[in-house]
Amino acid sequence: MTNYGPTVFDTDMFIHRLSMDELVKSAAIDVFKQNKPSAICSFSLLELKGNYIQDLILLRKKIYASDSLAQAAAKISIAGQRKAMLMLLKLIDNLGGYDFPVKPWGKAKNYLVTVLDGQISVSWQIFHSFVDSILDDLNCTRAKEPPNDDSGEWRASIPKCNEKNTDCKIVAFMNTYTKDLQTLLDFLNTLTPTELKEGDELYKIKNFIKTTLDNSSFPWGDYRCRSVGDLLIGLQSKIGSKLISSNKKEHFYLSKGLNYRFVEFPVANIRSK
Amino acid sequence: MQVTDQNNEYGLISSSVNIKSSDAATKRTTRNIVYFNRDDSERASQLHKKEQYKTRIIDANPTAITKENKNLLNHCFELILNANDSSLYGPERSNCFDEWKEQLIILSQNDNLSNKQRKILGVLITSVLNLDISDFWENKKAFQVLQEATNILRFSGIAKSECERILKDITGLGLNNTLLPLTCDNTGEIENTNLDAMYAYLLDKSK
User: Fold this and answer.
1) pLDDT at residue A116 greater than cutoff 60
2) What's the structural domain count of chain B?
3) Number of residue pairs across A and B with CB atoms under 8 Å?
4) What residue of B is the nearest CA neighbor of A25?
5) 8 Å CB contact of A86 and B187
6) In terms of C-beta distances under 8 Å and separation of at least 24 residues, what long-range contacts does A25-31 make, across chains too?
7) Do B187 and A125 touch (CB under 8 A)?
8) Residues 130-169 in B contacting A (C-alpha not used; CB under 8 Å)
9) Which chain B residues in 69-98 lie under 8 Å from chain A, judged by CB atoms?
């Protein structure tokens, strides 16, 4: 941890900046303004692509393929559950709410698709613009792949990593933190079963660290990095002055074990105001 | 080269046109875009075609612009030009700006727009959502960007690079709603109930 490095913002902070809850949104924007210089880990960009941008593409595809609002909503609910349905409703709310020109559906559909095309086009760029720098010690190949529509349809899928399609430095990166990983493992071993539940990300992280230390190599490939995203973000945060996140569950313990400063964004408190 | 600074029916000439020094008095945007008037449309068309092939990567599948869309696009461009015309009466400029926003939405509802046109249009619509002309009084640069984006929309064969540049220019303005607040992981129950009520109303209205 350094006192002079940038403030690192966790992935969830970017989600809060786009929250439909005005209090959460404005509090998040303030935190970004007050903590300069700011940074994001390249891995967070990957998470944003895998979540937020994928959701936008889902909305776009289902709306485009539907013959009515009811059909679009049904498709979106089935494929993306309540979260995606709320996104659709919030989108309509932003575009006029009760006054949204829903009839005829053909025109309403074109309007929604146009706005979503715009949102997908600029989201990647805007996520970059929220911060002053991107921390990319991992040289993550997947984080350098923006969503594209070269084939005429939006794609933001994240391929499984393998030797042929990946040129990252995750193994070397992890090797530079061997001592820290050992310290973290020792710390995690002291936690009670209540604090460290099987199936939780922290539990997976513990197993990953053990495997990495036993084999002297991080077991990368497929989607493995994505299952331990908090560990990767925590390690990269060590070169920053602090990490701001609403994810207390993992970073409270990881920051103790890895020795970085964690500042909680108290989203529940802000929401209840 | 004869270039005049007139209203309506402008043709875009790419920024790399080699303009003689005698044309220095012609109207250009910050990106050296020169607008030709209707009288010079043949020359503009020729130069435009030439420049497209010289400097642009042509959209592989340009969607032909229908007459209805063409008229609407030209109208939108005229409106944003008027909104930025300081010689016009203030309320007229404001009305032009509001009408420009409305026309962009009407345009987005039409068929036969290319995907690049939809991208630019979508970003334009959300960027100025809930904004008034007074938000731009002191921001000449923003007006130039909005004007240029509206102008580029009028072309079916927008190059990828040109589309990306204009999107970057719009996002660079840092307007509030360019990226809409759509994340809902932490939405409160009251908000959810309100959204559900809105959906029920719209569903009924759509039948």
Assistant:
1) yes
2) 2
3) 151
4) B181
5) yes
6) A25/B181, A27/A265, A27/A270, A28/A265, A31/A244, A31/A265
7) no
8) 167-168
9) none
Tokens of A30: 């303030």
Neighbours of B27 (CB within 10 A): 12
Edge-to-edge strand ranges of the sheet holding A7-9: A133-135, A38-41, A7-9, A242-245, A262-264
CA distance A64 to A62: 5
Q: Within a domain: residue A1?
A: no
| Domain span at A94 | 7-271
Q: Which of B202, B204, B205, B206 to mutate to test the interface with A (most CBs of A within 10 A)?
A: B202
d(CA A125, CA A142): 16
Domain that holds residue B109: 63-181
pLDDT in tens, A119-175: 999 999 899 999 999 999 989 999 999 998 877 789 888 899 999 999 999 999 999
Query: 0.95 cut: is pTM over it?
Result: no
Q: Roughly how many angstroms between the first and final C-alpha of chain B, as a whole number?
A: 58
Which residues on chain A are in Cβ contact (under 8 Å) with B125?
Answer: 114-115, 118
| Whole-angstrom distance, CA of residue A236 vs CA of residue A190 | 24
pLDDT tens-place string over residues B10-68:
333 333 333 333 343 334 344 444 444 444 455 445 444 444 433 333 344 456 788 88
- Has residue B129 been placed in a domain? yes
CB nearest to B187's CB, from A21, A52, A103 = A21
Residues B50 and B71 in one domain: no
Find out whether A15 and B179 touch, Cβ atoms under 8 Å: no
